[in-house]
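ok so for the tutorial part 2 we go from a plain amino acid sequence to predicted structure tokens. step 1 is just haveing the sequence, like this:
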Amino acid sequence: MTEPGGERLATVLARLQRAFIANGANGKQTEAELADAMQLERAARKEALERAGHPLPITPAMLHAIERGTLCTTFALEAALLWRDSAPGSPVPREPGTLPSRPILVLHGVTGSGKSVAAAAVLAQTTGARWASGRTLLECYVGSFGETLQRRAVLQTSKLLVLDGIGDERPDRAGDMADALLDMLAHRTHRRTILTTRMSDQLFARRYPSPPLGSLFVESADLVAIPTGDMRKAAP
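step 2 — the prediction. this is what the tokens look like for a chain of 236 residues:
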């Protein structure tokens, strides 16, 4: 998955560091190029977040840390980055014997376990990404005309889609949510989707007892249970 601005930051840094060693006399110029590359990367992350199409439910401090690339490492973040880097076609080498990640990543854990922050960190490094809450997803299926269809199409065709807070809808809308999820994910078979929820996989299956939806998750989703704990901290 290619980050905004072209090359991945690690590639840019490695290239500039090699140039710094090879051109000691031009060290100051190379340091300036390195600083410029890092600034461009931060700007690209900020732009990706701003273009997500939905206000992210993340504190300003966390958003700033995502833009700077200074998030503290959490279980959720490591899992999300591993899923991203092990996608089919990813330039990041996989460990021998490991399989490519599936198109859907489901992060489930309690409030404060870092699910949304991890999803936002991946989104910030992806061009053409979109963010939608469960409520937004349901609103996209209220009707079949005009703006509703346009909003639905944008989510269906985005390179990466984050569906945040699935399961937070009213209990009487659970059937509508199951239908909306099934349709949305069926249209995204060859695209990447991150879904966050406070429900365990067992509770998820009970809330949405749709056999087609269940089969889709069995075949196409990587399920990650995040250990309990409040991890909403930005790096100093």
